[in-house]
Automatic annotation (TrEMBL):
One of its GO terms (molecular function) is mannosyltransferase activity. InterPro entries: Glycosyltransferase_domain, GlycoTrfase_DXD_sugar-bd_CS, Nucleotide-diphossugar_trans. Coiled coil: none annotated. It comes from Salinomyces thailandicus. Belongs to the glycosyltransferase 32 family. The chain crosses the membrane at residues 256-277. This is Glycosyltransferase family 32 protein.
Amino acid sequence: MINHPEIIYRYPPTTNEERGTSKQADQAPKIIHQIFLQEGRNSSLSKYNDALASCQTLHADWTHMLWTDANATAFMQQHYPAIAPHYAGYAQSIQRANILRYALLDHFGGVYLDLDVTCLQPLDDLRHLPWITPGAYPAGVNNAFILSRQHHPFLQKLLAEVPRRDMKWPMPYVENMLSTGCMYFTNRWMAYVRWLAASPGPVPEEEKVYILADQDGNTDTHMLRGKVTTPLFAHGGASSWHGWDAAVIVLVGKHYGYFSIMTGSGVLLLVALVWRLTRRNRVGERRSPLLRARHGRESMEKIDDEEKLLSGKEG
């Protein structure tokens, strides 16, 4: 982020220019998209009622669109037929939810919010921006909140890569992160930022992307990392899609020192074992000429005995 200060957007804004009142007209439409893909799971939308109500109250004049299994699948088939087979073939609903949010923002524009995000402030002061999202730890961007204009070029590049990134992995958490989730999102976003930086001329405002920061340029303040409250949102940190492999990764992260010692010890034992086997082989090689000579004499004596025995039989 420090290498690209031009993508930092400081919130809350303190000047009319930062608020966008002296810039071009609002780019993001007044639409909030949220996604609830149940797919037979024992889950209920009612547990998100308070979070949903908070965003509806602060954005009373906005359109609120809730996407479920039925209307989401129909939307993908109608508007993104090349991606629809991948969407239907994903093993996890979170993969579908990720791709769906990118497609919805590309098609309609507006704001995407996770269901466990409670709105604390109206988002009207951000609508003059073409694209904005929070940062992620330890690097990159988070897709729990995205504001975008319709048909932003980053979204088009992001969606174009979807078929090529549809790969199977033995760990569900890794499969989601690399195929559709935050790691895929971040990698494509960083590539887009580099592409903008390499552009020969001035970048049009409508093609830019921004990342939320405080007035000091610190992106940590707005990160939706786990259960946290930021200037704009309270994030529940539900992570309802996390499975056994995510739990293992979190466990390793919490006890990094212990696992580092265990890993280091294992490496040392492996090195010691390889050294011992190598040393044994070298000792064997030094002894091998004598052994081969002895074995050769024994073989010749055995052949002589067999010849004598055969001669005796023939006689």
